[in-house]
UniProtKB/TrEMBL annotation, chain B:
Gene source species: Actinophytocola gossypii
Domain (FAD-binding PCMH-type) ranges: 1-172
Upper lineage: Bacteria, Bacillati, Actinomycetota, Actinomycetes, Pseudonocardiales
Record-given protein name: FAD binding domain-containing protein
Keywords assigned: FAD, Flavoprotein, Oxidoreductase
InterPro entries attached to this UniProt entry: CO_DH_flav_C, CO_DH_flav_C_dom_sf, Diverse_Substr_Oxidored, FAD-bd_PCMH, FAD-bd_PCMH-like_sf, FAD-bd_PCMH_sub1, FAD-bd_PCMH_sub2, Mopterin_DH_FAD-bd
Gene3D superfamilies: 3.30.465.10, CO dehydrogenase flavoprotein, C-terminal domain, Uridine Diphospho-n-acetylenolpyruvylglucosamine Reductase, domain 2
Length: 769, 275, 195
């Protein structure tokens, strides 16, 4: 009994199939045997920006084992403009057509008997290019002398982008403006203003599982098994690409070996679908680690910003000019530009705010979603500024923040009120954890210690749609059909906990079906920390519908009103009446193995922001609130930062599974340590120069803080399932600024460019002398 | 991928190296496989030493350690006799890559690779090791201090293979191996140094701070610890010629080299005093 | 106009109909498991004893142990994460010693006794400690950590925290499960040789 209760909401039951994961016995997409499929390898562009004059494929075609070579022109001939796909702008071809826009862009695909042959044949393809002026960075792009795209091509997905169709001579594909009060005037009139030019570089997700897509044609339908967080989106994209009804496209998944935003929207899937469809055969497309670096990145972002206080120390103005470098293709950059640009002032009470947030094309690998969805880049700016302002005012950076943080019911600068966003609780928790109020041995020699805190705020993706179907089996086990993809966050586990809690059954008897668009219902995406709330609510509702059904059947059997029946782990009860679920369902159908079925939907809503002011009374369904505290030691000789204690707190509303929540917080914090200290994609004239795991830096077990403390803060959300919200991104928001603020505290230098390499720290120390 | 040849004697290996087009010795294979995957290895034939008997032997005598080229890097780290006779070398071998790569990587391949960032050459330079090179023309001994010629260029002729390394026993004194990375903690070194203080001399091997591993030495008679540090920093100055890359610019790498050498000298000096 | 890379000069785009996908109708070579053939090139047969079961596998000169295990033996806990020995997802034990199978030529392992994570018993100290400590999120990298931990404990039954860190430094867990992994190794050591 106690074990059953532990499997409900609030219990830290083990993740689904931990034993299988530990021994590697859970099947991933790349493990699927494919028989006599065509293996696909891609020839990639060598130029950052060039017109394709000719693609010479005959030598590759002549190689033994090569079945065929397909170019962008070949696909365009068959698919026309449908070749161009993307979530916000239909701007990205599966294979470059007419132009290449970044070094590494797919130009031609080889289909061969095995992967080694396919890869060898890509080296035998020759391309004639006419070079075009490259747009290497934000400065080039905004100078407006060369354009990555001739004209903007909004996709049909987002109605609010329609007015951008056909706009020419710009690299800015989207602009978001926030105007609350008169921020410039308030800044000019204010007593104390701090300013900064902040930079957060492009980074890569590097989930250890490489992407893989297997696509085939069956009875005139396009079917695929693919590593994606967005099966419902991919189904729609493929249907559009091939001009098929949704019923003739099937997208299936397996648990992902990590993703963090890398396996979303249009990755390998459009190419695989186009090849399988035009070639009429099964194809398997995968990527090496080096190729995976080119598929998507985190946006590099520049933020020029200021924060102003009046003579009493009240925050009166926040101004930010945010430029997201989205690379050659917009992907979901325009959404990031708006949703993350709007929180550039931070989670503070500020009467006047002005944000200009732009999404900018350059000739680089495309940038898309990455854990935090663009918010860590603006958090880097606002948490550095408020820290510096506190120093300027001679105030304690913790207390100064605390005084100005948004409270329950407060309206944020973009016009939406706060609910279930306990910034103060998170800040207090991390400050206490790292000993903010205790004396600190600051060191006198080469090693100097300091402490820093940072707070983050992020909106959940809104509006979105979740659906769930539940089948209760006659033996009192259940099968839950949802399209949420488990990629390590544990959704299969917590969704079962939610359903089991409602039904008073053992959650370990609930199987969550892997996303299969033929069977599992539509779900917007598994991303943006939205699933616990949205899909969790659909699951709660579908379980409640099942509970009502069971109670109805029991009431009928017992001959009592439904109000008198309750569910228990041993079955429905009403006074002295009792029956097991197995008996009840068997009695109803007269058959063993029969199932009861219910379905439910949950859809969130928003008020679109005003085009002029960027304001909305409900820009999001709910907020994520997080804080990070760091105690660090700087080796002033080498510039190396050692993290002695990192505390990370997140308001999750209610923890469905506290252990999994803690893992999300600490895992995000560890990823954030990389972003803070060493993790970045380095490009030179459009060429990625550290795109292998020998050079690209990821946190290893050696980079852990001496102490890492995840802290769960629970401020229940009125509409969340059992009060719960998501947590996947909360932990990463404030890591880099908390560490930088601790460096400022330790050695007195303010760094505005990430990562905080030892070299940058020693250079700043030398300049400071 | 080049053709793989699997000789079963040293003579056969040497013969293959002298007759095949564009051959390369395949030792542990870890670095070679990486270069193959990166498309920057240009060889037509691999001569695999795995089947040649005797190349995995380690023999220790009073005068030093003789190791075969196929001895793993990990064995140099863990073998108690090696640790006792050449502790500085053992400490440097312990810092190569990670334990799993050290299980496969070979001591012969490690030096033949000639990469300027590798840890073991710093210790071999200090200890005055000798590289035994074998070809159809016979066998010759190359002093390690003449072995690293230029960026990824060694004194080996194209038809020669490393058939052994002799490391003289470490003299009484004190030694330290220090390594600093500039990005992740387990990244390639940004600067490394082996230091031996013995018989009134300081010997220093430098890694990652010039196109080749570098060796410098000076007379430390009459110096105190600060004097030794100052002399060391002066001595290494002409040897520093860092290659700027994602791990740091020239100025930072020079700085880190100085810090690394200072820490190593100070540590060794302290060990000497404490002994 | 520039050509990248220079062409032979004998091939131009006009020699084929650029409007049609270049997919040839060609008989496919057999890739069935009956032949266990995993790559092209010079082939030889090797014997791999994987988790106690002997497999005869045809390999080419350049077949990697990783591909031989995945494609011919059918082991899927051994995974390619980086291809350069830096992430540890492809770790196997050969005769108890850890190897990056992505950098290892299969031919060299003829006759080898290979252990993969599937081959460990579910009651194995390391496996059960990882499960109990929740030392897996997505789990993709975890079999590699498990094998490195098994190797460590065989060499050093009472590792310090620093010993654990030193031995696992070449394995990447992108979910950031390191604290749980470190705890699991300590628990396994305690279980195997109680203080």
């Amino acid at each position: 009994m106690r074990e059953i209760e532990q499997s409900w909401v609030g219990g830290s039951r083990p993740r689904f199939d931990t034993a299988g994961r530990v021994r590697g016995m859970i099947a991933h997409v790349g493990d699927q045997a494919v028989g006599a499929a065509a293996h696909v390898a891609v020839h990639r562009a060598t130029q950052p920006h060039a017109r394709i004059e000719a693609v010479h494929v005959d030598e590759a075609l002549a190689m033994p084992g090569v079945y065929g070579v397909v170019t962008g022109a070949d696909l365009y001939k068959q698919l026309g403009d449908r070749l161009l796909t993307g979530p916000a702008f239909a701007d990205q071809p599966a294979l470059a057509h007419e132009k290449v826009r970044y070094v590494g862009e797919p130009v031609a695909a080889v289909l061969a008997a095995d992967l080694a042959t396919a890869r060898a044949a890509t080296d035998a393809i020759w391309v004639d290019y006419e070079d075009l002026p490259p747009v290497y960075d934000l400065a080039d792009a905004l100078a407006g002398t060369a354009y990555v795209h001739d004209e903007l091509r909004p996709s049909s997905v987002f109605g609010d982008l329609k007015h951008l169709r056909g706009v020419r001579d710009t690299n800015v594909n989207y602009t978001y403006n926030l105007r609350t009060g008169d921020a410039e005037a308030a800044r000019d009139a204010g007593a104390h203003t701090v300013t900064g030019e902040f930079w957060a570089p492009p980074t890569h997700h590097v989930p250890i599982e490489l992407p893989c897509t297997i696509a085939w044609v069956d009875s005139g339908r396009l079917e695929m098994l693919t590593t994606t967080q967005t099966p419902s989106y991919v189904r729609q994209t493929i249907a559009d690409l091939l001009d098929l009804p949704l019923s003739r496209v099937r997208v299936t998944t397996r648990p992902l070996g990590g993703s963090f935003g890398a396996k979303m929207y249009d990755r390998l899937e459009p190419l695989a679908a186009a090849l399988a469809w035009t070639a009429g055969r099964r194809v398997r497309v995968t990527a090496t680690r080096e190729e995976a670096f080119l598929l998507t990145t985190r946006h590099g972002a520049a933020v020029s910003s200021s924060l102003t206080a009046d003579a009493e120390g009240n925050l009166v103005s926040s101004v930010a000019d945010v430029r997201y470098d989205t690379g050659a293709y917009a992907d979901v950059g325009p959404r990031i530009t708006a949703k993350s640009g709007m929180v550039a002032p931070g989670p503070y009470r500020i009467a006047n705010a002005r944000v200009l947030s732009r999404c900018v094309y350059t000739n680089k690998p495309s940038a898309g979603p990455f854990r935090g969805f663009g918010v860590p880049q603006v958090t880097w700016s606002h948490e550095s500024l408020i820290d510096e302002l506190a120093h300027e005012l001679g105030e304690d950076p913790y207390a100064f923040r605390r005084r100005h943080l948004l409270r329950e019911g407060d309206e944020a600068p973009m016009g939406t009120r706060m609910h279930s966003a306990d910034f103060v609780g998170c800040l207090d928790a991390v400050a206490n954890a790292i000993g903010w109020f205790d004396p600190l041995d600051r060191g006198t020699g080469r090693i100097r210690r300091g402490r820093g805190v940072a707070v983050g705020v992020k909106a959940v993706l809104t509006p979105t749609i979740a659906n769930a179907v539940l089948q209760l089996n006659q033996d009192n086990s259940a099968t839950l059909l949802i399209s949420t993809v488990d990629m390590g966050q544990g959704s299969d586990t917590i969704m079962a906990q939610i359903a089991a809690d409602v039904l008073r059954m053992d959650s370990r008897r609930i199987h969550v079906v892997r996303a299969d668009t033929d069977a599992t219902p539509y779900d917007t995406i598994t991303a943006g920390s939205r699933s616990t709330y949205h899909t969790g609510n659909a699951v709660r509702r579908v379980a409640e519908a099942m509970r009502d059904k069971l109670i109805g059947l029991a009431a009928e059997r017992f001959g009592v009103p439904a109000e008198e029946v309750s569910l228990t782990p041993d079955g429905p009860r009403a006074g002295s009446h009792e029956v097991t679920v197995a008996e009840l369902v068997h009695g109803h159908f007269g058959a063993r193995g029969a199932t009861l079925t219910t379905e439910a939907n949950y859809t969130s809503s928003w008020t679109p922001y005003d085009k002029e002011t960027g304001r909305s009374d409900k820009v999001t369904e709910h907020w994520f609130a997080g804080a990070v505290g760091a105690r660090i030691a700087v080796d002033t000789a080498t510039g190396r930062v050692r993290i002695e204690h990192l505390a990370v707190a997140g308001d999750v509303g209610r923890a469905i599974n506290p252990t999994l929540v803690e893992q999300q917080l600490s895992g995000a914090a560890i990823m954030g340590i990389g972003h803070a200290l060493f993790d970045q994609l380095v490009l030179d004239q459009g060429q990625l120069i550290n795109g292998t795991l020998l050079d690209y830096q990821l946190p290893s077990i050696r980079d852990l803080p001496d102490q890492l403390t995840p802290i769960v803060v629970e401020s229940p959300h009125d509409d969340g399932p059992f009060g719960a919200k998501g947590v996947g991104e909360t932990g990463i928001l404030g890591v880099a600024p908390a560490i930088a603020n601790a460096v400022r505290d330790a050695v007195g230098v303010r760094l505005t460019r990430l990562p905080l390499t030892p070299e940058s720290i020693t250079m700043a120390l030398e300049e400071n002398q | 991928m080049p053709r793989l040849h699997r000789p079963t004697s040293l003579a056969e290996a040497a013969r293959l190296l002298s007759t095949l087009d564009n051959p390369m010795v395949y030792g542990g294979g870890t670095a070679i496989q990486i270069l193959v995957k990166q498309g920057i290895l240009f060889a037509d034939n691999f001569v695999d030493l795995a089947g040649v008997p005797g190349l995995r032997d380690v023999s220790v005598d009073a005068g030093g350690v003789t190791v075969g080229p196929m001895v793993t890097v990990r064995r140099m780290e863990t073998d108690p006799e090696v640790r006792q006779v050449v502790p500085l070398a053992s400490a440097a071998y312990r810092q190569v890559a990670n334990p799993r790569v050290r299980n496969t990587a070979s001591v012969g391949g490690n030096i033949a690779h000639g990469d300027y960032r590798l840890d073991p050459p710093t210790a071999l330079l200090v200890l005055g090791a000798t590289v035994r090179a074998t070809s159809v023309r016979g066998t010759r001994d190359i002093p390690i201090r003449e072995f690293f010629v230029d960026f990824q260029v060694t004194a080996l002729e194209p038809d020669e293979l490393v058939s052994g390394i002799r490391i003289p026993a470490q003299p009484a004194g004190a030694s330290r191996f220090e390594k600093n990375s500039s990005l992740g903690e387990n990244d390639w070194p940004c600067a490394s140094a082996s230091v031996l203080v013995a018989a009134g001399r300081v010997q220093i091997g430098l890694g990652a701070v010039a196109p080749t591993p570098r060796y410098v030495t000076f007379d430390a008679a009459g110096l105190d610890d600060q004097g030794a540090v100052d002399a060391a920093l002066a001595a290494i100055e002409p040897a520093l010629d860092p290659i700027p890359d994602v791990r740091g610019g020239v100025a930072y790498k020079r700085r880190l080299a100085r810090v690394t050498v200072e820490d190593a000298v100070r540590g060794a000096w302290k060990d000497l005093q404490d002994a | 106009m520039r050509r990248h890379p220079p062409t032979s000069g004998t091939v131009t785009s006009g020699e084929r109909d650029a409007t049609q996908p270049q997919v040839r109708d060609q008989a496919e070579p057999s890739l069935s498991n009956a032949t266990n053939r995993v790559d092209s090139g010079e082939a030889g047969q090797i014997t791999l004893t994987v988790n106690g079961v002997t497999h005869h596998v045809d390999v080419a000169d350049d077949t990697l142990l990783l591909d031989a295990l995945r494609e011919a033996v059918g082991v899927t806990s051994v995974r390619e994460g980086c291809g350069v020995g830096a992430c540890g997802a492809c770790t196997v034990l050969t005769g108890g010693t850890s190897v990056s199978s992505c950098l290892a030529l299969a031919l060299r392992y003829d006759g080898a006794e290979i252990t993969t994570a599937e081959g460990l018993d579910e009651n194995d100290d390391v496996v059960s400690s990882f499960v109990e400590c929740g030392a897996a999120q997505c789990g993709y990298c975890i079999p590699g950590f498990v094998l490195m931990s098994a190797e460590l404990l065989a060499e050093n039954p009472r590792p310090s925290e620093q010993d654990i860190t030193d031995h696992l430094e070449g394995n990447i867990c992108r979910c950031g499960t390191y604290p749980e992994i470190r705890r699991a190794v300590a628990v396994a050591a305690e279980r195997r040789s109680p203080k």
